TrEMBL record:
Matches recorded under InterPro entries: Peptide_deformylase, Peptide_deformylase_sf
Cofactor binding comment, as recorded: Binds 1 Fe(2+) ion.
Any GO MF annotation of the entry: peptide deformylase activity
Cofactor(s), by name: Fe(2+)
Active site: 140
Gene it is expressed from: def
EC nos: 3.5.1.88
Family according to the record: Belongs to the polypeptide deformylase family.
Native species: Shewanella avicenniae
Catalysed reactions, semicolon-separated: N-terminal N-formyl-L-methionyl-[peptide] + H2O = N-terminal L-methionyl-[peptide] + formate
Protein name: Peptide deformylase
Amino acid sequence: MLSIAIYGEQVLNQVAQPVTVFDSELQTLADEMLNTMQQAHGVGIAAPQVHRSLQMFIMASNPNSRYPDAPLMAPQVVINPQILQTSEAQVWGEEGCLSLPQERCQVARFESIEVRYQDLSGEWCQEWLSGFVARIFQHEFDHLQGITLRERTAKST
Ligand SMILES: [Zn+2]
């Protein structure tokens, strides 16, 4: 299990660098991030949270002790993500973060978003996400801009 950066560590407030090399080292990092996320009962984890300032995260919604109502999906590695367009509607929901243990906050997120990102082989994928999965994407995307729940909730209030 990789060590998880806790709020206050500088890596969490840096803009992450684009991934340019899609090799076995990147695959290994993705595997280690997935293991770390699962052991911590998270539904997503971003590379800066394991002290790697790279534009990469994993979203893996599944019902667990932290999020009993989460939908089940296969873990998806998301690299160099972009949000192309968003719904007008935003929805409030409770979020936690592996880097802010013990904290849960109400955060407004777009109900649906159109996104574009690369997978581990460097292939571009484009799709619409909605609901809880869109929420995870927006939370992890924030991490790549150096924004945690602390900054997000400070902004929206
Ligand atoms: Zn987080």
